[in-house]
Design brief:
Blueprint lengths: L11 E5 L4 H11 L4 E6 L12 H11 L2 E6 L5 H15 L4 E4 L14 H31 L5 E5 L7 H6 L1 H21 L5 E6 L7 H4 L4 H6 L5 H11 L10 E3 H7 L24
Parallel strand pairs: 1-2, 1-4, 2-3, 4-5, 5-6, 6-7
């Protein structure tokens, strides 16, 4: 593939999470162009129920064509994230893309949701996205000055104020909408600097290990799409002009359709005619 067809070649992405699932597939799509990728992830040792560690993820990214910096760290820890940003700039010379992928989920109603879990979701989802984005701003501004098309992309939903979503799982909704408010605010704050700030959310549930391990997992997997659809959509966002593509709450399939990709059956986790399950907040 000619270099002109690899717009992320030599670009640097820093991602929270990414040892598995949607984040890993987004990183692999960038790695295929020859991108530099820093992964900030906690999973150093194999999880009993979830496949993949930061080490296996790094191997996959390198096999795909990327250069990887592994940072075993916690997005909840200020010093850990600051060190990851500093090490990325030192290793790769800057940062061109921030992907806020790390997220915790618990759909319990308010009465039964423990405050420990509430705090976990707030700290990883909302605060973690704010922190990583904040600390990367100087490097993103430098990227913009060098005409390297800097972006922040956060895996969070459109701000849908239908009371249904707050009423169904208030703690989780607050945490995810906090991520989306970070997109909204930073897009406006950084607009003048030419930094694109957007969110991306799947139209349907995505077939990940987390979905498979929930009650009714087999049925959920059959009515889900693969993470490839999010990766392909994220790639299109991250390669779009940062100066004009900002403050959007993109839905994966809409991004693809707008770029001429209308055949989406190939993204089904299980081929068949079963109706797909629409994701939360839509």
């Amino acid at each position: 593939m000619p270099e002109s067809d690899k717009p992320l070649a030599g670009r640097t992405m820093i991602m929270s999470g990414g040892s598995r699932g949607i984040g890993l597939e987004i990183a692999k799509r960038a790695a295929a162009d020859g991108a530099h990728i820093t992964l900030i992830a906690k999973t150093d040792q194999p999880h009993p129920k979830l496949p993949g560690t930061i080490h296996t993820a790094a191997e996959e990214l390198e096999q795909a064509g990327g250069t990887v910096l592994k940072v075993v760290g916690d997005v909840r820890d200020d010093a850990s994230v600051a060190a990851a940003v500093d090490r990325t700039v030192e290793r790769f010379g800057g940062i061109d893309m921030v992907v806020n992928n790390a997220s915790a989920i618990d759909l319990s109603p308010t009465e039964t949701l423990s405050m420990k879990t509430y705090d976990l979701m707030q700290d990883i989802n909302c605060r973690g996205s704010f922190l990583l984005s904040k600390l990367a701003i100087p490097a993103l501004k430098a990227s913009a000055r060098a005409d390297r098309n800097p972006h922040i992309l956060t895996l969070s939903p459109p701000l849908n104020l239908d009371p249904r979503w707050a009423g169904a799982h208030l703690g989780y909704t607050i945490a995810k909408y906090g991520m989306s408010l970070t997109t909204l605010g930073l897009a406006e704050e950084l607009r003048a600097f030419g930094i694109g700030v957007n969110s991306l959310w799947p139209r349907t549930t995505i077939a990940t290990a987390a979905i498979r391990n929930r009650p009714g997992g087999a049925q959920r997997m059959a009515t889900s799409r693969t993470a490839d659809i999010c990766a392909d959509a994220a790639y299109l966002v991250l390669t779009s002009p940062a100066g004009s593509v900002t403050a959007n709450f993109f839905i994966d399939e809409q991004v693809l359709v707008e770029h001429g990709v209308t055949e989406l059956d190939g993204y089904r986790a299980v081929p068949g005619a079963e109706p797909l399950t629409v994701d939360l907040f839509l």
